[in-house]
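Input for the complex:
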Amino acid sequence: MDNRLVVETKNLTKMFGDFTAVDSINLAVQKGTIHGFVGPNGAGKTTTMKMLVGAIQSNQGEGYIKGHKIGSIEAKQFIGYAPEHTFFYNNMIASDYLAYMARICGVNKLEVRKKALELLDWLDLGNFSENKVGGFSAGMKQRLSLAQALIHEPELLILDEPTANMDPTGRISILDKLSQLAREKEVTIFLSSHILSELEQVVDFMTMIDKGRIVVEGKMSDLRKRFSGNHFLLKTSCNEAILAVIKDKGLFSESWIDNENFIHLISENTPALRKEVVSAVVQTGAELEHFSEEQASLQDIYRKTMNMEEGS
Amino acid sequence: MRPTITKERINSVMGKAIIVMNKTISELMSFRRLVAGLFIGLAPVILFGFVWREIFSSGTLSLEMQIRSMVGYFMLISFVWTVGAFIAYLIIVSGTDSISKEEESGTLLLMVSKPISRFQFILGKFLGLLVTTLLLEILILFGSVFIFWLTLGLDPETVGALLSVAFWMFLYSIIVAILFDALAIAISTLLKSQMLKITLSILLVGFIFTFGLIMRGLWPSTYENYHLGYIDPGYHLGNIYVSAVEQVESGRITPQTQAYMGLINGTYSAGIEEAVLVMFIGTSQSFDPDIGAMPPSLERTNYLNPVFSALLCLVVSAAAMGVAKISIEKKEVY
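Predicted:
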């Protein structure tokens, strides 16, 4: 058992009759990281998360939270979970609801009220602490759902679409707070989201799942490189001349000039290409405006992994 | 090595169950529910209070007969309604929804992700429902005596007798509440469909209170010969009830009440004939010992020791909670 791993699963499988919702997945979530978990609808994300929190049982395989078997009380002590859809006792006021959840999690009776109010303040719900939860907007409920997950200061947050139903301001605010938790309190966060452009701003690691199987996983920086496909962007004052010089050397497999006058080069021989670009610029006397290695975005990685065509 | 049952272990199990219990109590003790419960629970008492007012206003009963007949009426109405059908349905209505409602609303998903065992959760629900039901029962039982006192203008001694009987009825209601509470929680963990839950609940309560009544009415010899009393839940409840109430001097009931009790729950050797007979000869005059028209006391059937009946009810309750525990622990919460 690796002590740096907060979540570890081995061949975790969940079947519903003949349908395999989660197929032998091996997860490894490292301490203090934000680990994204993405995939299309029905890929098995929510099912996996529900197995991790002990709501449903696996058919095969095993999983551990900080070395404790998933579903055990010991494992649950480390987890704060916010499901995709928010569920509350609508007749309770927000602070009472959080106090109840805190007591269930074993927080000292004398501290619960203070903790609840602090957390509501932190999540910009301080003015609504005495309001009934039933009257909250969807975005407020989403924040309250995060609050109940955080009330016992868990080491691991499992968040299923934590920014769903929120406006852009709310989404950015929540993602900032999650980054803050990971950075300042070393909370490990395992979260799913369909908003890839936002998710990639915060995640350190990524696991992509499709049809119950992991299709891609790894450190975000490694994935960006891996999926960039040795793609370079070049812009000079004399693109055609530069392209002609480099072409003669046979250093790229593909090239094109886009509408914004950027030369795109796909090359397997990166060091040689870099050298050749510099020498071509010198040789032609052109002015170098831009030269960079293109980094794949999460959306690019997702598109390639799921075999989706551009624009589809 | 067998885990030892220490005080800390009990505290840790009960601690979180008590948190759930407190929340359940606060949910169930709403003002509206309390008023509705009191109204429904006391309705027959109010109704009969006004009917009996006519009998008592005739003024022909001696004090002893007033006490004995009043206790008899109180026993009958309480067994059938206050600590019978009313308490059963009160618990069934709230209890069968307790887990399934959390499942439907999604709150169970959050609860099972928290560091509380699923059994602690249902135990908390069980205790919350038990406490609120018993609080309501106290109000209704002692409220019944108050209503009788108000409507019938009873003698203080009669009121005292009714109060002491009410105390034993309350003790009996604890066993009934535990039994129906456990059954309701088990149904709630097993079934989701509202229609199925209602149907099963009606059948279950009906079976418990009418199985023996029907069997003794239609096939009295079969009931006797095959010792159906052993498996007749109505008999066991009646056996506990009559024995509890007879603990007080004023709980020694009249032969008329004995006949009704025999008919309803089989605790006295009385069939329909005896009940009809005492109904017709049981006028106010016939009960006056000075006239000497009191029908003879009926014999207790004593199929089983009442302590055994009480233990059996508790064992059935424990078994129902066991089923609920297995069911909730196996439940997949989506």
